[in-house]
Amino acid sequence: MTVSVYLPLLVSVVLAVSVRPLAKALPPRLGLWVLTAAAVIAGVGTVWTSLLLGSLLVDDIPAFDAAERLVPVDDMMSLGAAAFLGTGAVRSCLAVRRLLHTRRRLRRLNAMPGGELLVVADPRPDAFAVPGSRAGGGRVVVTQGMLRALDAGQRRALIAHERTHLRARHSIALSLAELAAAMNPLLVPVRRAVGFLSERDADEGAVAVAGSRRLVAEALAAAARARSASAAASPLAPGFHQFGVVDRVSALLAPEPVTRLRHVWIVGAMTLLAVGAAFDATRDFAWIVQILLRH
């Protein structure tokens, strides 16, 4: 337990350090879900092992003096784990509150009259996908300011990009990554990488519709320029962020990405390590509890 209980934390650190180059190397859709799963497993694993560490403070209770020689963990580590759990609990509550608030705003947008494409009379340039309750459901919201900033081909690419967000259910991956980063702040870079890959996947979906990588890159650049020139985003926007515009334009202007599964195996191996370590630490903790119950 002295080693395994810390391995999920170590996996979180390695993911945080290596996720930026991994996000660029992974195929967008596969990488999106692989990193989301890794973040959730690393987040839950770290919370669980921290709970085990915090529980080892039981050896300070007079009735459990026998635990002192059984527990191979310093009390300072257990106190640190307890503080980590408390911080994570507060951050998780705030994250859930933000997600619920966003969901309410999106529900109101879905209730507005109009079809799958909703054009809003707002001079501020913005466009975003509003997910529905089923795969492929929801609608695309575009302001008149954004439509004026793009030509006909760029508008088609932009709408295809947002529709890909809906079809691929990117909102689920983003929400899961947000919760994982709330539980474990070390996973914040992974949450950003999930956002970047969701945008990259939507870019590739737009390429499939528009038939031109350059056109999609131009649409992305034009939309980014329009947003940056605006004093503020539309108040209808649900708070979604634009991730890595420069890197995404570069990827679109490069040849079509080649799938390299070795990077997927690397992330998978780290994830399995976190799972195995949490299981091993739980087994050791159960052994300590059994010994205490016998006394």
Automatic annotation (TrEMBL):
GO terms, molecular function: metal ion binding; metalloendopeptidase activity
Residue ranges annotated for the Peptidase M48 domain, each copy included: 116-173
Record bears the keyword Cell inner membrane: no
InterPro entries noted in UniProt: Beta-lactam_resp_regulator, Peptidase_M48
Cofactor note: Binds 1 zinc ion per subunit.
Segments traversing the membrane: 6-23, 30-58, 78-100
Cofactor: Zn(2+)
Biological process terms in GO annotation: proteolysis
One Pfam family in the UniProt entry: Peptidase_M48
Keywords carried by this UniProt record: Hydrolase, Membrane, Metal-binding, Metalloprotease, Protease, Transmembrane, Transmembrane helix, Zinc
Record bears the keyword DNA-binding: no
Family assignment from sequence similarity: Belongs to the peptidase M48 family.
Annotated protein name in UniProt: Peptidase M48
Organism: Planotetraspora thailandica
Source taxonomy: Bacteria, Bacillati, Actinomycetota, Actinomycetes, Streptosporangiales
